[in-house]
Design brief:
Elements (H helix, E strand, L loop, with lengths): L9 E6 L2 E7 L5 H12 L6 E2 L2 E3 L3 E4 L39 E4 L12 E4 L12 E7 L1 H5 L12 E2 L1 E4 L4
Antiparallel strand pairs: 1-2, 1-10, 2-8, 3-9, 4-5, 5-7, 6-7, 6-8
Length: about 170
């Protein structure tokens, strides 16, 4: 388990194989970090599927509208929804999309990120400056690597629970 320096800006995602600890970057992307904490504290990320998992690229999740596997899970719609909160403006930075970074998923519109995010399996520098980076995995990346692959996966994995470390 990684040392947690700032529990208020650390996210704990429980997966089938163990806990993934994510250090948020509020100095880089304050609005995206605040949104993740708000949705985590509301329990909205719990039981949400990894709906798009591309081997050697990234694992995407966070569609709280269509991908909750305990409430109205719709594999055809998973990945098209967000939360009932307004979309976020892009918070682009010089932080590269390295292995283990947390990026904001969005549509073609740079200011359309809402609740969805992805974790990079490897360095994806072609995404630099195009998607907001707002966190990085500091422990448990082996659990991310073990997420079932597919677009969508036939039997998707889910985030069992997502908590702010300060509340855990």
């Amino acid at each position: 388990m990684a040392e947690i320096k700032d529990p208020e800006n650390t996210i704990l995602i429980e997966l089938k194989d163990g806990t993934v600890t994510i250090e948020l970057l509020p100095d880089i992307a304050p609005d995206h970090c605040a949104r993740m904490k708000e949705l985590a504290r509301a329990g909205q990320y719990d039981d949400v599927a990894f709906h798009r998992v591309i081997d050697g690229f990234m694992a995407q999740t966070g569609d709280v509208q269509h991908a909750n596997m305990e409430k109205d899970y719709n594999p055809r719609m998973a990945g098209t929804g967000g939360s009932d909160l307004p979309d976020l403006k892009a918070e682009f930075s010089k932080i590269p999309h390295d292995r283990g970074t947390l990026g904001a998923a969005r549509s073609q519109n740079p200011n359309s990120a809402n609740s969805q995010f992805f974790i990079s399996f490897k360095d994806n520098h072609f995404l630099n400056g195009q998607y907001t980076v707002y966190g990085r995995v500091i422990s448990g990346m082996e659990h991310v690597d073990a997420i079932t692959k597919g677009e969508p996966p036939a039997n998707p994995d889910r985030m069992i629970s997502v908590k702010v470390a300060a509340d855990a």
